[in-house]
């Protein structure tokens, strides 16, 4: 190819390069429309350029990759204070050799600055000044500089020799041991802080600058040198900076002022590397890495290594904040936070939740936590035990109360039965009067009237009436005398129908206790004891009945006291022939029932089971039931009854009447259970005090003993 | 050459004054120094670390300029010269080995040639041939390649050396590299240079 042609191609090629890759083809089409061969030539060159790039052709200079300087100081025995010089490696600042120092009588590390860092005298001066400032630092975790010197115009310094590897070579060992990493960085941070207090910045903190001795102790090296050389390193030796760029602080990348906070960043970057096995930022090129350092947040360490816990992650990320005011205020502050983390105390970096605080306190105060746990456990045990005892007792009490109510109801039902028998006795006697059937057959109302008057007066109970109804249900006699009642049709009344049913069966001498009805004469609720009147051939002729007004307890005396309330429930009759016959019950007698109010309806479901029983009027072994959660139907009109009741129910023979005995649930049960509560509390308190005395006293005694024996030593 | 330091100061002053022959003399001087060192190193017992040519150049610089301040421009000139010198040392050696494979070996240079051969997968003599052609076509591009590849200089340093802009340097590099790639690929296809079959030229190192 002729130089002229090549120059021509080059001009077009160079112009095409000014366009982004996608537009180059289009540009060539337009700019060299007339010259197809030139276009083709440039396109080919572009293609080959890309191919060369992709296969890495000449990408790296022939020999930048391995930048080990050749310089070997050939000290000769006799004319030098060193002997046995041996190459160790290359640090950030230069080459390090191991040498035996004859005057010191020990092995030392000799560090000569890299030739590339000593291109002018100003750099040489800096090297000397910085070596001296580093020599001022005396700290167990900082590599000690013993002496500075010059050999063949080349400055060097003599350092303490650390037997071991740099942290860079041991990064992988820490990935599984985050706590060891935290402890190590804590130690390093204190060393860095020591330097900061003496106005020396490190500014090139990275794993390669931390040497780990045989005991695992870190020693910070290359102190105070990197700061001055840092920028030169970036611009002149890209290969050398690549390792460093990942650890540079954002302010260093931007060329802003470097402070102690930059070293805090570096410490965080090392910690990050130990926790995750990689540097916080790593681009494909140095420029890319620097851009990441400047703009991106590091991937949280926990995302890369789940073994790192949240507190340590927070500490690490706090160091790596872009803005230095958000980092730890000093390296010692970082060290102390790491110490806090290692002791299980809350860190500055991350506020704990209340739960974490409690868990941490327990972990740090095992004896106290154990004590508290034991006492609380004993206390809970005692309370639970007492409660269960109380609960069992409560259940027993409930059962006893229920049983008591049921038996009381049965007793009272028996009493009611006796009362009814007393009421029915005179009716029974009257039916046996031979005149009755004769008078009724003749419809001799005056005669019948005489009989009912006699029956009525034979009772010692007030407000009682007696009457005779013929077989057609027509009232023929009534005492006390009430002429307006005579001739009335009562064939629909339950007292008539019940006695008639007995009469048709031929059950002479039987009585019927009627359902409750509203009396026509006085408009009061009442019930009747009725019996059939039969002739000699046992033909039904009519009924004779005695009614008792519900007022004044109908002559039935029930003893309610403060705790136990007694109610009488009766089935309801219809009050006119047109009314439908419903199986309805009324509260006939109730201590909370007020005079003048219509009887309260009683929910039939409560006594349905009892109602089914086939009982005789005289039956004394009535089945009883009880309800631990009884609602009194009277409660809508008597608010003091609107509580939970324990109730027992008993039927009054086969009359359809029921006795209810009820007792307030709270009264029956709660009084006793509160006694058990206090029992539980007292027993728990007692156990607490007992455990406390048993555990705290010996423990305190032991502590005091230990303290005193410590004092004596 | 008993006083290389004095001479080099003089040469740099002449280069600064614009003398082209001074540049040639500088290259010759550095070449001599490098060659001397390479041969000396041959005999030195080295520890397990490898010696890099960059180190060699730095070392040569150090030997020539001990403790002397040097301006950035002079530094670039020096590295430019060193790059050329380095190239010359390697080419001469590769030629000699190719001509007389049984001749005396210089382990350091073997090592360097071998590293170029394996890292870049190119034959030194082929590369030199193509570079000579490039030099005739476009001398500045030839210089860019030499300074970059043999000298390991940064674009800005090369720009300083050649007194052109950095973007010019980069464009020169792209064009030259594409062209070299094409040429060497052609040779590689014919003679298998690209896959390292010509290693024998470089000897058994």
Distance between the amino and carboxyl termini of chain B: 32 Å
Quote the beta fraction of chain A: 15-25%
The secondary structure category of chain A is alpha+beta
Tell me the total number of β-strands of chain B: 0
Q: What is the ordering of alpha helices and beta strands of chain B?
A: HHHHHHHHH
Mean of all residue-level pLDDT scores of chain A: 79
State the helical fraction of chain B: over 70%
Low-confidence stretches of chain A: 64-71, 226-243
Report the sheet-strand fraction of chain B.
under 5%
Count the E strands of chain A.
20
What is the CA-based Rg of chain B, rounded?
Answer: 17 Å
SS element count, helices of chain B: 9
Largest interface: A-B, 50 and 51 residues
Which spans of chain B of ≥5 residues are poorly predicted at pLDDT below 50?
42-51, 189-205
Mean pLDDT of chain B: 69
- How would you classify the quaternary structure? heterodimer
Description:
The complex is a heterodimer of chains A (713) and B (205). Chain A is an alpha+beta fold and 713 residues long. Chain A has 20 helices and 20 strands. In chain A, the strands form four sheets. In chain A, strands 9, 10, 11, 12, 13 and 14 form a six-stranded antiparallel β-sheet that branches. Chain A has a six-stranded antiparallel β-sheet with strand order 17-16-15-20-19-18. Chain A has a five-stranded antiparallel β-sheet with strand order 1-2-3-5-4, with helices on one face. In chain A, helix 1 crosses helix 3 (36-55), helix 5 (178-197) packs antiparallel against helix 13 (331-343) and helix 15 (366-431) runs antiparallel to helix 20. Chain A is elongated, with a radius of gyration of 56 Å. Chain B has 205 residues and is mainly α. Chain B has helices at residues 4-16, 20-43, 53-65, 72-99, 107-120, 124-137, 139-150, 155-162, 166-191. In chain B, helix 2 packs across helix 3 (53-65), helix 4 packs across helix 7 and helix 8 packs across helix 9 (166-191). Chain B is globular, with a radius of gyration of 17 Å. The relative contact order of chain B is 0.11.
């Amino acid at each position: 190819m002729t130089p002229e042609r090549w120059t021509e191609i080059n001009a077009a090629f160079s112009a095409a390069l000014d366009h982004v890759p996608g537009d180059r083809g289009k540009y060539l089409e337009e700019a060299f429309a007339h010259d197809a061969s030139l276009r083709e030539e440039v396109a080919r060159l572009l293609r080959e350029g890309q191919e060369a790039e992709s296969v890495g052709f000449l990408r790296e200079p022939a020999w930048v990759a391995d930048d080990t300087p050749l310089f070997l100081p050939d000290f000769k025995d006799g004319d030098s204070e060193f002997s046995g010089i041996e190459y160790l490696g290359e640090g950030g600042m230069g080459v390090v050799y191991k040498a035996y120092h004859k005057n010191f009588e020990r092995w030392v590390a000799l560090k000569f600055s890299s030739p590339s860092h000593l291109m002018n005298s100003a750099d040489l001066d800096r090297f000397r000044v910085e070596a001296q400032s580093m020599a001022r630092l005396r700290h167990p975790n900082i590599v000690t500089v013993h002496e500075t010197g010059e050999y063949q115009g080349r400055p060097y310094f003599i350092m303490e020799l650390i037997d071991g590897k740099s942290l860079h070579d041991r990064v992988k060992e820490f990935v599984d041991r985050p706590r060891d990493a935290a402890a190590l960085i804590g130690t390093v941070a204190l060393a860095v802080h020591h330097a900061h207090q003496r106005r020396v910045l490190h500014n090139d903190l990275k794993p390669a600058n931390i040497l780990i001795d045989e005991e695992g102790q870190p020693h910070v090296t290359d102190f105070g040198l990197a700061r001055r050389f840092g920028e030169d390193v970036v611009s002149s030796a890209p290969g050398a900076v690549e390792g460093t760029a990942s650890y540079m602080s954002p302010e260093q990348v931007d060329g802003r002022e470097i402070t102690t906070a930059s070293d805090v960043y570096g410490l965080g970057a090392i910690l990050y590397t130990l926790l995750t096995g990689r540097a916080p930022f790593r681009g494909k090129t140095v420029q890319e890495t620097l851009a990441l350092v400047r703009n991106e947040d590091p991937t949280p360490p926990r995302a890369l290594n789940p073994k790192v816990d949240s507190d340590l992650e927070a500490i690490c990320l706090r160091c790596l904040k872009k803005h230095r005011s958000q980092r730890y205020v000093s390296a010692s502050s970082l060290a102390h936070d790491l110490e806090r983390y290692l002791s299980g105390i809350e860190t500055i970096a991350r506020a704990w939740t209340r739960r974490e605080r409690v868990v941490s306190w327990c972990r740090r105060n095992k004896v106290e936590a154990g004590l508290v746990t034991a006492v609380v456990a004993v206390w809970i045990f005692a309370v639970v035990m007492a409660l269960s005892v109380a609960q069992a007792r409560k259940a027993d009490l409930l059962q006893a109360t229920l049983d008591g109510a049921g038996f009381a109801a049965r007793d009272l039902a028996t009493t009611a039965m006796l009362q009814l028998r007393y009421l029915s006795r005179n009716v029974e006697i009257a039916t046996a009067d031979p005149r009755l059937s004769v008078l009724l057959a003749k419809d001799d109302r005056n005669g019948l009237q005489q009989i009912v008057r006699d029956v009525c007066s034979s009772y010692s109970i007030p407000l009682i009436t007696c009457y005779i109804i013929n077989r057609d249900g027509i009232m023929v006699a009534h005492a006390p005398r009430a002429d307006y009642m005579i001739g009335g049709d009562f064939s629909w009344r339950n007292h008539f129908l019940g006695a008639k049913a007995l009469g048709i069966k031929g059950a002479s001498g039987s009585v019927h206790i009627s359902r409750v009805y509203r009396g026509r004469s006085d408009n009061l609720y009442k019930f009747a004891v009725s019996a059939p009147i039969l002739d000699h051939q046992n033909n039904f002729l009519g009924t004779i009945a005695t009614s008792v007004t519900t007022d004044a307890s109908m002559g039935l005396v029930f003893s309610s006291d403060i705790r136990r309330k007694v109610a009488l429930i009766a089935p309801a009759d219809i009050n006119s022939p047109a009314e439908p016959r419903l199986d309805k019950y009324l509260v006939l007698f109730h201590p909370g029932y007020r005079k003048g109010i219509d009887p309260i309806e009683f929910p039939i479901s409560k006594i349905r089971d009892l109602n089914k029983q086939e009982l005789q009027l005289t039956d004394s072994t009535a089945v009883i039931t009880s309800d631990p959660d009884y609602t009194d139907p009277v409660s809508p009109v008597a608010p003091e009854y609107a509580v939970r009741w324990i109730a027992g129910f008993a039927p009054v023979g086969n009359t359809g009447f029921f006795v209810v005995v009820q007792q307030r649930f709270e009264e029956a049960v709660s009084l006793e259970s509160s006694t058990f509560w206090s029992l539980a509390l007292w027993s728990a308190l007692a156990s607490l005090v007992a455990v406390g005395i048993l555990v705290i006293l010996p423990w305190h005694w032991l502590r005091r003993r230990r303290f005193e024996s410590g004092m004596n030593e | 050459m008993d006083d290389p330091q004095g001479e080099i100061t003089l040469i740099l002053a002449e280069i600064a004054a614009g003398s082209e022959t001074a540049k040639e003399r500088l290259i010759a001087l550095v070449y001599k120094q490098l060659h001397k060192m390479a041969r000396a190193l041959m005999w030195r017992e080295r520890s397990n670390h490898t010696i890099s040519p960059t180190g060699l150049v730095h070392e040569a610089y150090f030997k020539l300029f001990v403790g002397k301040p040097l301006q950035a421009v002079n530094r670039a000139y020096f590295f430019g010269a060193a790059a050329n010198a380095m190239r010359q040392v390697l080419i001469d050696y590769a030629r000699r080995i190719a001509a007389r494979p049984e001749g005396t070996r210089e382990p350091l240079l073997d090592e360097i040639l071998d590293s170029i051969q394996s890292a870049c997968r190119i034959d030194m003599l082929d590369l030199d041939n193509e570079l000579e052609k490039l030099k005739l076509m476009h001398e500045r591009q030839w210089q860019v390649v030499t300074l970059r590849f043999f000298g390991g200089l940064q674009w800005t340093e090369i720009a300083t050396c050649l007194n052109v802009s950095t973007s010019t340097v980069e464009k020169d590099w792209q064009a030259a590299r594409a062209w070299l790639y094409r040429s060497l690929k052609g040779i590689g296809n014919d003679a298998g240079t690209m896959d390292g079959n010509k290693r024998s030229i470089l000897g058994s190192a």
